[in-house]
């Protein structure tokens, strides 16, 4: 939890955020594991403050400055993002770097099965997500000042190396399946085909705000893992959720009668995305899915380590997290062997 002097924070916000008056309330959002996020109330206005967590952090993690930069760039496009208002230095009244953005009103859907909507509305939600993803990957990074937002070369090769390193740095238990998956990804690395775009890195339904009364995306949130990379990483990561269970600690679509409730199949979703982007269906689809499983379990391993170290934004029971990580490692290995 951040420690701060309320009067000092109020004065800082008044000096750096247009339209900010008295700091009437600061309330931490309960959800989220990575960068602590707060709702600021100032009179009739509301703002969102998103900060690096306190304590020792993994290298390159919690890059709120990158989140600020990518959303600032995408404000010039038809990809819906909140308006960026201020980025602080590391030496801030919160004790860590933070940014302030507008608060976007709307709906967040935590369950991808969308139980509170009818079939037609569910279909429109998935169509809106698909359209937004295709629009994001069609943005010219150079045109929005993000031409240097990532490194050149094989994206997946770099990402496997990065997340393997992150996993090792946060490792708390020896998992044979996780070791096997890392070896498999290296041995089955896809060649660099030159495709590159802005990628979100955590593209899923609960990282979006939908308009209050329409099934359109009002804002895409949580850009911490964004970079320049291969667009199929985002597509596969979202499609992984078709395969995760919709029970326990998972919010997936496995076992859900998708046709019966108006949701597209994984193949239909991929086909629609490819049609919108004017590309062929991807080869080596299994690699992209296995990579998505591994990256997510590496992220969760970092959450577990931070929780054990006392620095998690919203710590969960460590035994539950260990179970989830082991389950995902096993599922990734089975998928690779299918």
What does this structure look like?
It holds the Pfam family APH. This is Phosphotransferase family protein. The chain is an alpha+beta fold and 338 residues long. It folds into two domains: 24-102, Phosphorylase Kinase, domain 1 (2-Layer Sandwich); 119-337, Alpha-Beta Complex (Aminoglycoside 3'-phosphotransferase, Chain: A, domain 2), CATH 3.90.1200.10. It has nine helices and nine strands. The chain has a five-stranded antiparallel β-sheet, covered by helices on one side. Strand 7 (208-210) and strand 8 (217-220) form a beta hairpin. The chain starts with 5 loop residues before the first helix and ends with a helix. The model has no long low-confidence stretch (mean pLDDT 92).
The CATH topology name of the largest domain reads Aminoglycoside 3'-phosphotransferase, Chain: A, domain 2
- Described by the principal axes of the CA atoms, the overall outline is globular
Count of alpha/pi helices = 9
Number of domains: 2
- Which band does the percent of strand residues land in? 5-15%
Domain Aminoglycoside phosphotransferase: 28-252
InterPro entries: ACAD10-like, ACAD10_11_N, Aminoglycoside_PTrfase, Kinase-like_dom_sf
Protein name: Phosphotransferase family protein
């Amino acid at each position: 939890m951040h420690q701060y002097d309320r009067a000092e924070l109020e004065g800082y916000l008044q000096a750096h955020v247009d339209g900010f008056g008295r700091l009437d309330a600061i309330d931490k959002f309960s959800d989220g594991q990575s960068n602590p996020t707060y709702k600021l109330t100032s009179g009739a206005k509301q703002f969102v403050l998103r900060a690096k967590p306190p304590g020792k952090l993994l290298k390159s993690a919690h890059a709120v400055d990158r989140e600020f930069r990518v959303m600032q760039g995408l404000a010039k496009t038809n990809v819906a993002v909140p308006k960026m208002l201020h980025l602080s230095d590391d030496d801030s009244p919160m004790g860590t770097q933070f940014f302030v953005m507008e608060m976007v009103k709307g709906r967040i859907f935590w369950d991808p099965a969308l139980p509170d909507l009818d079939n037609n509305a569910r279909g429109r939600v998935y169509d809106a997500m698909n359209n937004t993803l295709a629009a994001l990957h069609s943005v010219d990074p150079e045109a929005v000042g993000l031409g240097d937002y990532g490194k050149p070369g094989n994206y997946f090769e770099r990402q496997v190396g990065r997340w393997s390193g992150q996993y090792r740095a946060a490792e708390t238990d020896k998992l044979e399946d996780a070791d096997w998956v890392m070896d498999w990804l290296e041995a089955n690395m896809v060649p660099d085909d030159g495709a590159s775009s802005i990628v979100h890195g955590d593209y899923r339904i609960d990282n979006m705000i939908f308009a209050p009364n329409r099934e359109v995306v009002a804002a895409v949130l949580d850009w911490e893992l964004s970079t320049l990379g291969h667009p199929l990483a985002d597509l596969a990561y979202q499609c992984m959720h078709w395969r995760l269970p919709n029970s326990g600690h998972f919010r997936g679509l496995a076992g859900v009668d998708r046709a019966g409730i108006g949701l597209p199949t994984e193949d239909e979703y991929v086909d629609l995305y490819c049609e919108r982007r004017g590309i062929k269906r991807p080869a080596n689809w299994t690699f992209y899915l296995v990579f998505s499983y591994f990256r997510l379990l590496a992220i969760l391993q970092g959450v577990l380590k931070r929780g054990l170290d006392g620095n998690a934004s919203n710590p969960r029971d460590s035994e539950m997290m260990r179970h989830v990580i082991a389950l995902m490692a096993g599922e990734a290995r089975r998928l690779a062997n299918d």
